Amino acid sequence: MATRGIKNNKFLYFPYILASSFMLFIFNLLIDLKSEKFILESRGSAIIESLLEMGSWIVAIFSLIFLVYMAKTIVKNRYKELGLLYGLGMDKKSLRKILIIENLILGISTLIIGTFFTILLGPLFINLVARILKIQSQIKLSINFSKLILGLIIFAIIFILITLISLNSIRKTNPIELSKLSQKGESEPKANVISMILAIILIGYGYYTALSINGGIFQALPKFLPASIAVIIGTYFFFRSLVIWILKLFRKIKNLLQGYKYDLYRRAYQKKQGICHGPFINYHYLFSFSFKFCGYECYVCWEK
């Protein structure tokens, strides 16, 4: 029954497995790159190791947020199917068992595919980084399998949390409620003043910290991670409340967002987490590009 559910919803689960496997691959790549010989023996190795470790944990946090959101969306789209099974006589215990087995299959598949990508493509990316840094010594294309254990543990914990969230979503429902949850609308969203204030404070703190850092990279490192986390959390609060408040102001303007024909604020509230992931992904691309550029520039300066 669990395998049939995954097969029938393959268009939902295939992107989910692909995205989670890619995140595991990126996490393993950063962890493995940190222990490479040419990194350890290069000048400023302590700085590069700190940046790589910081980046790996940022990827882990982003993966947790993104995968939990995807899992909740998938479960919501399957409420009608689960309610039908529940109404045909399947008890909650059997329904929970199906969800546990499905998440177990998805988790094992993700760990296998992500590890396979790491073994297959990891050495190539490490060699590419060495070429960018113009490392003259020969790079041995190998994978330290002991370093893969951390990624497996982290993502196993993430899938355990996802399983618990999925089980909690059907804990207090009956067949009729469960079948109607997928069609249930939300009440008109309200802008939370506390969330708006937190968004402004956190985003302001993050960007102010980034722009006010003086000195070398040693002075920047202790402030970088708190500022990054503050921007991520502030962005979430921004799209949760501040955007809703702005759209409600626009709605009061005559002939602009009037009525429910252009009910953007309701859609923005329903899709707030999905909207947040756009800035999150852009932030990670910017972080990766900046790290590579700064690492290369530092390496060139030290060589001179």
TrEMBL record:
It is found in: Cell membrane. One of its GO terms (cellular component) is plasma membrane. The keyword Membrane applies. It is a multi-pass membrane protein. It comes from the Bacteria. Residues 56-175 form the ABC3 transporter permease C-terminal domain. The keyword Cell membrane applies. Keywords: Cell membrane, Membrane, Transmembrane, Transmembrane helix. The chain crosses the membrane at residues 12-31, 51-71, 104-128, 148-170, 191-208, 228-247. This is Efflux ABC transporter, permease protein. It comes from Anaerococcus hydrogenalis DSM 7454.
